[in-house]
Design goal:
By secondary structure, the protein is mostly helical. Helices cover about 85% and strands about 0% of the residues. The protein contains 6 helices and no strands. It has helices at about 1-25, 25-40, 45-70, 80-100, 100-120, 120-130. The two termini are about 15 Å apart.
């Protein structure tokens, strides 16, 4: 039961993010362009850092809330897991902006949710079974 609730919460969050990508591709493309511009311009690097720090904070919050709601713990430190999630979402978004293959992108999101579920800590799994 806890697995289903956790998987559902993660899947809903990933799908909500993805719907936003497909609905507003121009915003995501502009975001990449502005990030790269900021990194190339002396004195503007901090803007890109703050942008990605915001993403990491949002992913940390999602993972923490999912764990608390299901009474589980992650086998990987949440800051590392948040960075992993950010890298996957960043990569899939850029891939989709290039090829617009929504079917494959949604499959990657499904795989990502499955992978996250595989990273539930063993102690939490043992506790839930007893």
């Amino acid at each position: 039961m806890w697995q289903q609730r956790t998987a559902s919460r993660i899947t809903k969050s990933l799908n909500a993010f993805w719907e936003g990508v497909e609905r507003s591709p121009g915003e995501h493309q502009a975001s990449y362009e502005l990030t790269h511009y900021a990194l190339r311009q002396a004195g503007f690097e901090e803007l890109a850092r703050r942008q990605y720090q915001h993403y990491l904070e949002a992913h940390t919050e999602l993972l923490t809330e999912a764990a608390e709601a299901a009474d589980i713990e992650w086998a990987v430190p949440v800051p590392v897991l948040a960075r992993y999630l950010n890298a996957v979402l960043d990569g899939i978004t850029l891939n989709w902006l290039v090829d617009r293959n929504s079917q494959h992108s949604r499959e990657v999101l499904r795989l990502t949710a499955e992978h996250l579920m595989a990273l539930v800590g063993k102690k939490a799994v043992a506790d839930r079974m007893s």
